[in-house]
Amino acid sequence: MVVAVNHTDALNCFNAIRARQFYPKADCSISNDVLRSLKRNEEPRNVTTKKINLIFEQNLQQQVSSIEFLPVTGTFHALYKVKLTDDSLWVFRVNKLPNNFQDLGLELEQQVTDLVQEKLGGIAAYIKVADSSRTEFGFDYQIVEWISGKTIKSYDDQEPIMTALLEQYAAILAKVHSIKMKHYGLLSSSLQGTRLSWRDYITNNLHEHLHYLFENNLITVTEHEKCNRIFQKSEKLFNAIDPCLLHGDPSSHNAFTDGKSITKIIDWEDSLAGDPLYELAFFASFHPQRRWKHVFSAYKNTMGEIEARDELFWIYYLRIAITKAVIRHRFAYPDVPGQEPASGRIRLALAAVSEKRSLEEVA
């Protein structure tokens, strides 16, 4: 998120900020109070029916027949369901942050999904328009295809169906990882990583994240020291990584299904260039360990044999757990019932690294 200025200057500012971030939700320069207020699903005051009508008329040359403000909400975005006179359905996605935070990520996401569609077909949700220029309407928005069905999160309590969908999800991610990228870390507006090495990205803001967790009593001084030592000793493991496209947020909320197959993947704004094993660790962090074997097997069947880098997997898992703990505290998200709390995942990873635990023991 960047302060609104000339659009070219805003893009340059956006790229510079991306280079300083490990994960936008953890590292954004927005107060915790504002972040926590975003959970209230309120319509942005500067978004009016008249403006939405004009935007659709200009971009799709169709009249709007109905507009529905949706009860679900993205982290930084308000959502509307828009029906046009030709009966087509669209999602109108709007930046709901305070007006001085311009969301260039909406435009970046359109670039990423266009790339995925070019390389792999229509698995990424189609973004018709993304505009953060504010030249006419004063807010940042996307027009995105309406996706029928529901997210695979809704099958979380139906293990056989969930397992089959996760296998499909892993296979899709494997195909995404076949797209080669330049440089490392969060993507810039030129669709390349913002860091020159993978090590620089993985350790970016690590000390700040650990300090935040310690200051808020989420980790002990001993855990703080152990985390620092692990990353200091492991820097060589981050070398010789061939960067590929990573989705960046492979949660169950971001995959849609018709109940049998995964139909679309959404929310590509946190995409990055890096190691596929990192994304597998990120994927695993959303699920109990009993599901991991299905993910690894499906990924391997699509992408080929995964190099046995058990230690690096657990270090990635630790880095992700640290970041998620920061995010959960900043946004005041409650722990998910039935899942390991964020701080618990840190302890799990610390133990696994210390014991040199093999993934075969959990998968």
Topology:
Elements: H1 7-20, H2 24-27, H3 32-37, H4 49-60, E1 64-69, E2 77-84, E3 89-95, H5 105-120, E4 127-131, E5 141-145, E6 150-151, H6 159-176, E7 184-187, E8 193-195, H7 198-202, H8 206-215, H9 221-233, E9 244-246, E10 255-257, E11 262-265, E12 272-274, H10 276-284, H11 292-303, H12 310-331, H13 342-354
Antiparallel strand pairs: 1-2, 2-3, 3-5, 4-5, 6-10, 7-8, 7-12, 9-12, 10-11
Describe the structure.
The chain is built from 13 helices and 12 strands. It is an alpha+beta fold. The chain has 2 domains: 7-145, 2-Layer Sandwich (Phosphorylase Kinase, domain 1); 150-361, Aminoglycoside phosphotransferase (APH), C-terminal lobe (Aminoglycoside 3'-phosphotransferase, Chain: A, domain 2), CATH 3.90.1200.10. Strand 7 (184-187) and strand 8 form a beta hairpin. Helix 6 runs parallel beside helix 11. The longest helix has 22 residues, at 310-331.
